Each structure stands twice: as C-alpha cells, then as structure tokens.
Amino acid sequence: MRFDETYSGNVFIKSHPNYEESKAVLYGMPMDWTVSYRPGSRFGPARIREVSIGLEEYSLYLDRELDEVKYFDAGDIPLPFGNPEKSLKEIKDFVRKVLADGKVPIGMGGEHLVSLPVMEAVYEKYNDLAIIHFDAHTDLRTDYEGEPYSHATPIRKIADHIGPKNVYSFGIRSGMKEEFEWAKENGMHISPFEVLEPLKEVLPTLAGRNVYVTIDIDVLDPAHAPGTGTVDAGGITSKELLASIHEIARSGVNVVGFDLVEVAPVYDNSEMTANTASKLIREMILGWVK
C-alpha cells in the first residue's frame, strides 16, 4: 500500500500533497454491494471531490481556513466489485495503516456498511470509544433477508462489539419495532427525529472521550438531499446538521475519526446532495481535526 500518491486523480479542495506531513487522511470507500433499494453510492466519493472545487476555503462558522489543516486525500480505495467480505477487509487494512501512522481517518462512502470495518479498526486503538451516529435509519438489524453484512446492520454490529451504551444515534425516524426495543432494553441512546438539542444534552457526558462520528446523508430531509439510496421523508435541514457538526467541534470530545456515507449522485441532477456533502466534510475537517 503506497501513500506517496493518491489512488485517483481528483482530490478534495486544498488537500495536502504529502501523506507524511498530514494530520488526517481523506479516502473514499466506493462500495454499494449490499444495498436493498437503489444502488449508486459507490459514485459518491468521486463526485464529492469534484464539486468541492466550488467551495470557499474559509469557514465563516469556524473562522478557519483549509490551509490551516494538513490533510491528505488518498483517493478511493480500490475495492473488489461485488465482494463485500473482501471489500470490508481492504477497508480495515487501509484504516489500520492510517491509525498506526498517528493520523485521523476521514471516510466517504459508499453504503453505510463501509463504516463498520473503520469503526472496528478505530476501536482497536481506542478502547474507550463512543460512536455518534446521524441517520434516518436505525441500522440495527442482525441481518437483512438472511445476510448479516448489509447496509442495514452496521450499527448493530458495532454496538455488539463496543457495547450498546457507547452508541448514540440521532435523527432516527425509520426502523423495525424490534430494533427500537433492542436499543431500549440494552441501554443504547436513540434520539428519534431530532438532532441538535438532544446532541447538546449528550455531549457533556462524552467530554474527554474518544469519539467516532458517522453521518448517513439521509438524516437530511429529501428536500435537502435527494441523491441517496434510501430516501426517508421528515428529516432535518442542512442548517441543523451543520450546527450539530459545530456543536461537536465546541465540545470536549476528541474526534478520532469520522465519515459521511450514502451519497448517490445519479438521483440528484441538481447536485445539491453532493455539494451539501462537500460542505459538511469541509466543516468536519475544520472543526474536528485539531
């Protein structure tokens, strides 16, 4: 595995050209092998990079510029088409290397299953890890129609791995009744519908903790992000999600990795979804990479 050059030509705006000198590493996970409704999220990382050229380098929210953060864009991890098991292994091996080099992993999906090996690798390094999860869906199924590794199962799998009490989900508005019952019985935090206010209540309890943040773009209402595989009405606004990112930045938590997944550009001719995702990633980099 080489880090002296990116896997692909396009890079996110103002990424640093040198891996060794960078504090964080941005990478794509172009996989949608297990989606149950609409495929296409494997094209998300590349398009998010392409539209990032339209971003301002300065964040008025955080009074910080991308020049102030050295992050390397490694491009998309080359994943074997149609092979979830091998793809997950490739992702975990990549992230283990990034973590071993003392850098913060920043992932772009891809379906939400790609977050699982990343969170597992981060937990190997930080055994006090907590997960903050923004999503329309619980993702707490044990399997989807007999398949245990599915975009509907990553949060259940990481909860089983690190303990349900260490997982905090926000913006949830869809899931099986059994999933909500399991979360309640096992002490997992689920905030239905809302994000910002319940997040403000939770963050003080995580002060000093190492935290991984995973954002499924479908936490946004389809009016704000129609370009995703499983749209779900009744979501939050992009303004609310940006405010949540900034709230985490101001809190006492130590963000040791994060990702944004499920952008499927083909379903949004306006490119609103990819452009929104690009801005969210800019704010996460500026707010969470110290």
From TrEMBL:
Its cofactor is Mn(2+). Its EC number is 3.5.3.11. Coiled coil: none annotated. Gene3D superfamilies: Ureohydrolase domain (3.40.800.10). The keyword Protein biosynthesis does not apply. Binds 2 manganese ions per subunit. PROSITE patterns: ARGINASE_1, ARGINASE_2. Keywords: Hydrolase, Manganese, Metal-binding, Polyamine biosynthesis, Putrescine biosynthesis, Spermidine biosynthesis. GO terms for biological process: putrescine biosynthetic process from arginine, via agmatine; spermidine biosynthetic process. It comes from the Bacteria. It catalyses: agmatine + H2O = urea + putrescine. Mn(2+) binds at residues 112, 135, 137, 139, 216, 218. Belongs to the arginase family. Agmatinase subfamily. Catalyzes the formation of putrescine from agmatine. This is Agmatinase. It comes from Lysinibacillus composti. The gene is speB.
